[in-house]
# Entry
Amino acid sequence: MRWIALAMAGALCLGGSPARAEWMQASSEHFVIYTDDNERDLRRFSEQLERYHSALAFLTHSQFPPPSPSNRVTVYIVRSEAAVRDLYGQNAQYIGGFYISRAGGSLAIIPHVNSGTGKADFSMIVLLHEYAHHFMNSASSRWMPRWLSEGGAEFFATSSFEADGTVLIGRAAQHRAGELFFEEDMKVSALLDPPPEKPGRRSYDAFYGKSWLLYHYLTFEPTRSEQLPNYLSLLAKGKSQRDAALEAFGDFAKLDKELDRYLMRRRMSALRLTPDMLKVGPIELRKLSPGEAAMMRVRIRSRRGVDEAQAKALVVEARAIAARFPKDPEVLSALAEAEFDAGNDKEAIAAADKALALDPGQVNAYVQKGYALFHMAEDAEDKAAAYKRARAPFIALNRRENDHPLPLKYFYLSFAEQGLEPTPLAIDGLARAVDVARFDLELRMMLATTLIHAKRPKEARFALEPIAYNPHGGSLADSARKMLDRLDKQPGWDGSDMAEVVAARDGEDSGQSDDGQP
# Structure
C-alpha cells in the first residue's frame, strides 16, 4: 500500500454533516469518481484526469490495454480535512488525503478539487503524483531508483489544464520551493548513490524537491538530452545505481553546480500538449440512487479498511440503511461487505445473494460472497468441497470480467490454502493477476514466493525487484531485498526456509554460505 499526504472531507465526519448536492458518479476509461458536487465540475474533473493519463502515455510512449472496469482507480471526493484524517486513522495530523493501491480496488480519497482554474491546487497535485506512480507501475514491471520514481512523479504532478483541452506538463514545483531553498541541501551523490537506509523514520530534507529538480533538468537541458534514457538502459543491463549514474551523467560535483544554477533561473520550461495529441474517451455521469447515496459513508469507510471495533459499529449503520432500501442491489452489496468485515460470513453471503438476484452485474457482491466462503472453508471438515464452493463466485465473476485480478488470485489460493501444490494453470492465473495489477505489491510478493518454491529463480527475481526497490515498499521491500540476496547466493533456492530468511536481521547470512550449504 502506498500512503500519501492530501486533504479530506467533511461529509464523512462521524457526527454527520449538512446536506449537500446529490451524490454522482463519473465513469471513464481509467477512473471512477464519486462526489456530491455539481455535474459541470464533475465532468470537467473527470476529463482532466483522463487527459492527464493520456499525457503520461504520450510522453512515456506507453501503450497498454485499458484496465478491467474493476481495476480502474476509484476517487472519492469529500470536503473537509477532518473527515480525511478521521478516515486515515492514527498519525493523521498532517494528512490531507491518501491513496491505496490494491488489485481490483485502488482508491484515492481527496477533498474538493478546484478544477475550474486550470492550475492544480495541492489536493490535485498529490492525486496526480500518486496516479503517476500508479501509471508507471502499470506500464512497466522494471524497478527504478527512488529519486527517479519520486522525481518523475513530482515532475508530472504539477500539470495544469487549460480550457481548450491543452495540458501543461513539467511546470515549476512551487510546492517544493520551501524545502529547496530552506531545508538542508541534498547532494546529487545522495540521490544517485544512496547510502543504505537506516531503520526508523527519515528526517525531513530536500529529497523530493531535489529529485524533481534533477528530473526536470535532465528533461529540458539540451546538453543532457540523451542522458536519462542512457541511464535507464544501463540500469536495465544490471549496472549499479552509482556506476550507471557516473557513466550517464558524469561527475556528480559538476552536476550539483549545474543544478544550483538551474534552480535560480527566473523561468523554467514546460511541455505543452495540445488536444490533438491527447485521447479522451467517453465519460458517463449518473446520479446515485437514494439508497446508494445514503450508503456512501459506509461504502467509503469499508473500502478504506476498518478494524474490528469500526466494523462492528459500521455494520449496524449498514443494516439500518438496507432496511430502508431492501431492493437496491448497490445497497445490498455494500451491506455484504460490512457484514463480512464484521465477521458475519453467513449474513454476508445472504446479502450478496440478494444483491445478485436483483442485479447479476454486482461485482462487489461476487467478491464479498467469495471472501466469506473462503473464510468459512478454513474450518470446514470437507475442505475440498468447501474450497470448490468458495471458487464458484470468483469463477462467475471471471466469466463476466475476464481480467479482474481477484478471481485469478483466489483460484490460486483455493489450492494454496489447502496445502496443495497449485496447478500450472493456477500459477499462470496468478501471474496474469500480477500483470493486470502490477501496482499491488502484496500480490506480486505472493507470485514471487510461489515462483521460488517452484524453482523458477529468473521469474522470481523479475517479480521481486519492483518490490525491493519500491520507495514506499516498507517491510515488504525489506523482505524482497533479503529474498533477492538469497537468490544471488543460491540460485536454486526453493524457499523452504523463507520465514527464517525474511526474519533475519540486516547483515546476517541466515545460516547459509554462498554455495547454499549449512
